[in-house]
Amino acid sequence: MTRALDRADALVEGIRGGDRRSLARAITLTESTRLDHRQLADEVLEALLARTGGATRIGISGPPGVGKSTFIEAFGVHVIDQGHRLAVLAVDPSSRRSGGSILGDKTRMAELSHRPEAFIRPSPGGGHLGGVARRTREAMLLCEAAGFDVVVVETIGVGQSEVAVADMVDLFALLVAPGGGDELQGIKRGIMELADLVIVNKADGDLAAAAGRTRADYASAVHLLRPKWRSWATEVLAVSALAGTGITEVWQAIERFCTAVAADGELADARAQQATAWLWSEIGDTLIERFRQDPAVRRQLPLAEAEVAAGRVTPTGAARQLLDLFGGR
Questions:
Q1: 112 half-sphere exposure, CB direction, 13 A CA radius
Q2: Does domain 276-327 have CATH number 1.10.287.130?
Q3: Coil, helix or strand for 293?
Q4: Which CATH homologous superfamily contains domain 52-264?
Q5: Rounded to an integer, what is the distance from CA 66 to the centroid of its chain?
Q6: Dist. CA 17–CA 57, nearest whole Å
Q7: What single-letter DSSP state applies at residue 226?
Q8: Angle at 157 between CA 156 and CA 160, to 5 degrees
Q9: Is the pLDDT score of 51 beyond 90?
Q10: What CATH topology corresponds to 1-51?
Q11: How far apart are CA 143 and CA 52, in angstroms?
């Protein structure tokens, strides 16, 4: 027990001092499924909680091929040049066989990864909503405690479950590619309603004119949606991450957003609601873990699955029987 406490204290001191190895080790502990690792991670987070909350939290999503990594690299370099420290929590697609991360964002953000003011952490999606790893929230807090004042969460792609991202960040940015009406129709209304900023990427060369039209289409579309904030209306910008144009305007828009929603307490209210949503999410995840680990449930579960697969028992009936076993203990 004493050794564990000593280790927790060492990690806390390292993170407070901005030590990147301590930060990486603490994030690894939060992602572990081992009980002793989880307990150690909880101790570290509790000790650092007072140092969190000071960062601008940004979620970035968009369909595959839209250039999210290229944009984040250009954006990140610009933010660092403005005097900030940037953490990127990039949630990669996970292998269904091994659970491991397929892509590596450090290879896709070569320039940014060499900047000492940047910290890039790829992690497997793990099958959770929107590809957001269960412990991404905790990793975000650890990055804030280590002194990173801008935290970006990059998600796998676009889907209704991207609400999981919006529940952990201040600003949700949707990255889209130049296209016509079909492109606009392809983005679900729910995602559009989450977006605080819509960014049309690849606005250069032969695509510059198409990007301008796409920007106009989205600007018209967002005005038809119910406002997400009292003090902020969704903005639509066109950029070229490859050429580096429009990146300054994106950061200026984020600064305007933060000023607007913080002025009348909207941001504080949103973060309080996010913390409550996190509580219930954690309760649900923890209950499922304990349910699967329960001895009686583990003995009965294979038979219940076989009965459901064969059509002899309804999923509802099987679930009720298993929950009765779990609840009876």
A1: 26
A2: yes
A3: helix
A4: P-loop containing nucleotide triphosphate hydrolases (3.40.50.300)
A5: 18
A6: 21
A7: P
A8: 120
A9: yes
A10: 1.20.5
A11: 8
